[in-house]
Amino acid sequence: MKIWLFTMCSAVFLLTGCNQEKELTEVSLAEVTRSIFYAPQYVAISEGFFEEEGLDVELTTTWGGDTTMTTLLSDGADIALVGAETSMYVFAQGANDPAINFAQLTQTDGTFLVSREPVEDFQWEDLKGTTFLGQRQGGMPQMVGEYVLKQNGIEPHEDLELIQNIDFGNIPSAFASGTGDFVQLFEPQATLFEEEGIGHIVDSFGTQSGEIPYTVYMAKQSFLEKDTETIEKFTRALYRAQQWIQQEDAVTVAESIEPFFDETSLDVIEQVYIRYRDQGSYATSPLLNEDAWYHLQAIMDEAGELPMDIDYDDLVNREVAEKIINE
């Protein structure tokens, strides 16, 4: 009888222990769009890094900065992946519970300059007198685009015909149908256009504009204060993924994130990943650099879109990232 009771108790203990090990904390994550630009995030999911931290990350694509921020502020998501500028807009409106940036994913702009015709020895002054199909007015890609043009001695509204009234999703089709001599495009569209002979990548807005906190993870201040442990676990898994993509070969990375891009071939995923990796778009750690924060504000100010000067410490929590990096 004693042996039977011991066996039963042992079995109950083992089952309970197993169940406890399988219990994961659910974290809802809203991403602004689906992009190979966010490769480390998908690696953290596919390679099980979040799960190993005890997190069950439920990923939703919310398509657009405004929608993503609304989702976060209305408690539709615990964490949002979106441009850092959105947190500035919310803060400037006097939010009682502002969105705080706690980890960086990408550190450059993700767009490329694509020409309709092949251009040998491209120079930015080649754009003068041409028709340039840019990004939507007020968006971060447009702000970076105009900043880069000005840095290269081009006045966007005087030296070329600038088109900015086409919706983001329709820009590629507009260029493919004949609008514009040059266009500002995200990947993988730029690479696909090259493969199809529609356009030719001649330069990168990311390398031209310098380091900025282009895409970051943010959470409401109340969530950060209430659930710091979850934020730390999330950041630890992200940091592991950021290191992983720098160590693994391109084919391995492409295969890891392929399930998130059903309509993109493995070969294109690999090419796009290499392009972003080689130009330093993927942040190698979650720490958001203070100089990059103010550089972003300078770009926004140049475009007339900066609502107010905002101190780095007001909207950036660096303590979590520093703790994870120093572990």
From TrEMBL:
GO cellular component, one term: periplasmic space
Domain of life: Bacteria
Location(s) in or outside the cell: Periplasm
Protein family membership: Belongs to the bacterial solute-binding protein SsuA/TauA family.
Alphabetic keyword roster: Signal
PANTHER family per record: ALIPHATIC SULFONATES-BINDING PROTEIN-RELATED (PTHR30024), TAURINE-BINDING PERIPLASMIC PROTEIN (PTHR30024:SF47)
Name listed for the protein in its UniProt record: SsuA/THI5-like domain-containing protein
Species for this entry: Salipaludibacillus keqinensis
